[in-house]
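BUG: 3D viewer hangs when loading the predicted structure for this chain

Environment: internal workstation, default settings.
Expected: structure renders.
Actual: progress bar stalls at 90%.

Input used:
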Amino acid sequence: MPVVSSVKNVEALTMTFVAEFEAAVDRVWQVWADPRKLERWWGPPTWPATFETYEFKPGGRVHYYMTGPDGTRSRGWWTITAVEAPHRLEFDDGFADENFEPVDPKDTTHGVVTFEQVGDRTRMTTVSTFTSAEQLERMAEMGMEEGMRSAQDQIDALL
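Structure tokens produced before the viewer hung:
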């Protein structure tokens, strides 16, 4: 199982996931850089993702939706804020309406993903920072921790 730890820190307003993979940093980086690979793991297995817009550069826009077992679509957006291949990716993200406009521009999180070689493995650390303890708790209640764990556990199959 790739995810080795997940920590919810209400005081720091963060949720952190650490996963390790038996692959080089460049290969793990590609599961983020290639939207077709990202589609194969972003979201829990029962909610696969489809990326409609994917501008993988600082300032780039990303629009995607996840489709639930009953056909329900949950839409999201990212604005990529930093790309330092193959070691760091940062983005703001939030929920989107049917036109991929932010549902609430103030209800965003900031994600930082880092990749480091640890022996013959790659450690991928994903930190989501929230705007408030209430937002963090709401996302936790929506199943973010379980969803992110099950999503990242799908990466091994791509590597």
